[in-house]
Design goal:
The chain is mostly helical. Helix content is 87%, strand content 0%. It has one domain.
Amino acid sequence: MFVLAGRAPFLFPAHMLSSAMALLIAPIVIACRHRLELHRPLGRLLGIFVVIGGLTSLPVAIMSHSPALARAGFFVQGLVWLYLFGSAFAAIRQRNIRRHAHLMMAMVAVTTGAVWFRVITGTAIVLHLPFDPVYALAAWIGWMVPLGIVLSNPRFISASLAR
């Protein structure tokens, strides 16, 4: 990580800071979804952080010293993150609130991949598992499993958000 910060002294910190802010703000945006005077400006702020974090994730993934499979996982995660946000933004512009909510939940699921990635790699270290293969696998599983859960349960997500 420190090597990457040296190779990308602007991109890497911009990616880490904006992505961390997206991860922190997302639950607040969801929690205030029924208070539009808060939800809208916080949602716009979240969108700015997602766009910055997503766009910077692409060159950061390419420049990383991680195994190729891990770099590919990080790159695809960035693309999926941007796609889901863009689709959610388009849905709300069309006043399709249900689709917007579902796409944003999918986007947040991808966002949590940063947390799950660290849980998986930390567990691998504690269990003395071979690091490089686990790292590469975690770069995919960390975001694909939460995304799969959200996408496979649309009724549950819709019912949860209706409350």
